[in-house]
Amino acid sequence: MILVTGSAGFIGQAVCAALLMRGDTVVGLDNFNDYYDPRLKRDRLQRIAGSAGFTQIEADLVDRTAVDAVFSRHRPRHIVHLAAQAGVRYSFERPEAYVQSNVAGFVHLLEAARHTGAIEHFVYASSSSVYGGNLKQPFSVTDPVDRPVSLYAATKRAGELIAHVYALQFGLKLTGLRYFTVYGPWGRPDMAPVKFTRALLQGQPIEVYGHGDMQRDFTSIDDIVAGTLAALDDERHFGEVPHRLYNLGNSHPEPLMHFIEVLARLAGASPDLRMLPMQPGDVKSTSADIDTTTRDLGWRPTTSIEEGLPPMVEWCRSYYGPRGSG
Ligand SMILES: NC(=O)c1ccc[n+]([C@@H]2O[C@H](COP(=O)([O-])OP(=O)(O)OC[C@H]3O[C@@H](n4cnc5c(N)ncnc54)[C@H](O)[C@@H]3O)[C@@H](O)[C@H]2O)c1
C-alpha cells in the first residue's frame, strides 16, 4: 500500500491516478485547505474517487495523532509525500503555515514512518526554489543550497536536511525530488501557467514580474508523474546514508515572454501585459541539470511547452468556461 499525501493537490492527484492505473493500492491524505479554492481539490479527486484500490482520508499532517492513526489503520509500505504549503509570495504573508505543514507536518510523517519500521521507501517533494540566488546554471544537486530567498524555499530545504537525519540515524530510505515549475491540466490557479491562461481567456491584463526578463524550466505534469514513479520504483541507487536528491525539470529553460506568446496563441488572445518589478522571493532563472536523474532513474522529460500547453489551455476552457471566469 502506498500513502500519498497532498492527494487532492495538482501533482498528488495525478500521481495517485498513475499509481492506480498500474494496479497499486493507494491511500490518499489531504486536509483540503483553502490556500486556493478547495472545490478544485474536490473536483480533481472526483476523477479517481470510484477507482478500485483507492481510499481518501481527510486529515491534517500537523495533527500528530491523526497521522499515527492513518499508519496504524492502513500500514503503508511506501510513502509519496507531496502535501505542503506551496507558493513563494504567500510565504511572506503566512509564514507559520509553511513552518507547520512543511516542517512540523513532515516531521510527524517521518516519525510515524520511523516507528512502524515497515517503510520500504519514502519519496518526498522538494523544490527548485532551494537553489535560491544560485547564479551557476544549470542547477545541480551537488550545488551548495544555503541561500534561500523565500521562507517557502527555506522550509523545503529544511525538509531535505531533516530527511538526511532520518536516513542517517534510523536508516529510513528517503528520496527528495526537486520539482521545477510544473504545469498542465488541473494545475494550480495561483501559478503563472493557469493564472495567465485565465487572464488571456478573460481579456484581463497579465501581471508580468521581473519586467518579463525571467526564465523558467517549465515541466509538464506528465513528465513529473513519470519521474516521481521512476524515483519511487528505484531502490538501488542509495549511498551509505540512504537519502538522495534528484532534479525533476525539463532542462530546457523558456524565456517567460516566449511562454506567454505560446499561451496567447493557444488562447486566441493578444496579451495585455503589465510589466512589474521582481517580487520578493522570486528568482530570475531556473534550469535543471538532470544528468544524475537520467543516469540513475532512466528519466528524461519528453514534453516541450508546444506539446504540453495545449491540453492545459483546453482544460482551462472546459473547467473555467470559454471566457476563463467560471
Ligand atoms: N507545482 C509546482 O510547480 C511545484 C514546484 C516545486 C515543488 N512543488 C512541491 O510539490 C508538492 C505538490 O505541489 P502541488 O503543486 O501539487 O501543490 P498543491 O497545493 O496543489 O497540493 C498540495 C496539497 O497538500 C495539501 N496540504 C497542504 N498542507 C497540508 C497538511 N498540513 N496536511 C494535509 N494536507 C495538506 C493541500 O490541501 C493540497 O491539496 C508540494 O510539496 C510542493 O511544494 C511543486
Blueprint (SSEs and pairs):
Elements: E1 2-5, H1 10-21, E2 26-30, H2 38-46, E3 54-58, H3 64-74, E4 78-81, H4 95-116, E5 121-127, H5 151-170, E6 174-179, E7 182-183, H6 192-202, E8 206-208, E9 215-216, E10 219-220, H7 221-233, E11 243-248, E12 254-255, H8 256-267, E13 273-275, H9 291-297, H10 305-320
Parallel strand pairs: 1-2, 1-4, 2-3, 4-5, 5-6, 6-11, 7-10, 8-13
Antiparallel strand pairs: 9-12
Helix pairs in contact: 1-7, 3-4, 4-5, 6-8, 6-10, 8-10
Bound molecules: nicotinamide-adenine-dinucleotide (NAD).
Nicotinamide-adenine-dinucleotide is lined by residues 6, 8-12, 30-33, 41, 60-62, 82-86, 101, 105, 125, 127, 179, 181-182, 188.
Describe the 3D structure.
- There is one protein chain.
- This protein is an alpha/beta fold and 326 residues long.
- It has a domain at 2-180 and 221-248: NAD(P)-binding Rossmann-like Domain (Rossmann fold, 3-Layer(aba) Sandwich).
- It is 41% helix and 16% strand.
- It contains ten helices and 13 strands.
- The protein has helices at 10-21, 38-46, 64-74, 95-116, 151-170, 192-202, 221-233, 256-267, 291-297, 305-320, and strands at residues 2-5, 26-30, 54-58, 78-81, 121-127, 174-179, 182-183, 206-208, 215-216, 219-220, 243-248, 254-255, 273-275.
- The strands form four sheets. The chain has a seven-stranded parallel sheet, sandwiched between helices.
- α1 packs across α7 (221-233).
- It is globular, with a radius of gyration of 19 Å.
- Bound molecules: nicotinamide-adenine-dinucleotide.
- Nicotinamide-adenine-dinucleotide (NAD) binds next to α1, α4 and β5.
